[in-house]
């Protein structure tokens, strides 16, 4: 008799890579959809950071704005792109945290400068 195949529960964050142009400001809209269905983010604290490597000591904080909390809509932004590396977006509710979105940020050099 053979064993049933193992079930896998993957709790890793959704990977979204971001490609930017140095010194340009940016805003990216997201929607919180655990299990594929939009969910309220009203009770969540949402935090996002960039680090050159996951172990770097000095993070760059990103701005998170809830644009429609009931529908799970929010934006992540930065006034001026510059730091390349890795970012993630962490949701905290009732003391429990989970990273739902993560990825790499790649910043290309601009041509026109002051």
CATH class group: Mainly Beta
CATH names the topology as Immunoglobulin-like
Question: In total, how many domains does the architecture comprise?
Answer: 1
Largest sheet: 8 strands, mixed
Number of strands: 8
Helix content: under 10%
Distance between the first and last residues' Cα? 72 Å
Low-confidence stretches: none
The CATH architecture category equals: Sandwich
Tally of individual helices? 0
CATH superfamily: Immunoglobulins
Averaged pLDDT:
93
Percentage of residues in DSSP E strands: over 45%
Strand-pairing-aware structural class: mainly beta
Determine Rg (CA atoms, Å). 17 Å
Query: What's the shape?
Result: globular
Could you state the order of secondary-structure elements as H and E? EEEEEEEE
What secondary-structure arrangement, pairings included, does this model have?
Blueprint: E1 14-15, E2 18-21, E3 26-31, E4 45-51, E5 60-68, E6 73-78, E7 85-93, E8 96-108
Parallel strand pairs: 1-8, 2-8
Antiparallel strand pairs: 3-6, 4-5, 4-7, 5-6, 7-8
What does this structure look like?
This protein is mostly beta strands and 114 residues long. The chain has a single domain (14-108), classed as Sandwich (Immunoglobulin-like). Helix content is 0%, strand content 49%. It has no helices and 8 strands. Strands 1, 2, 3, 4, 5, 6, 7 and 8 form an 8-stranded mixed β-sheet that branches. β4 (45-51) and β5 (60-68) form a beta hairpin. The protein is globular, with a radius of gyration of 17 Å. The model has no long low-confidence stretch (mean pLDDT 93).
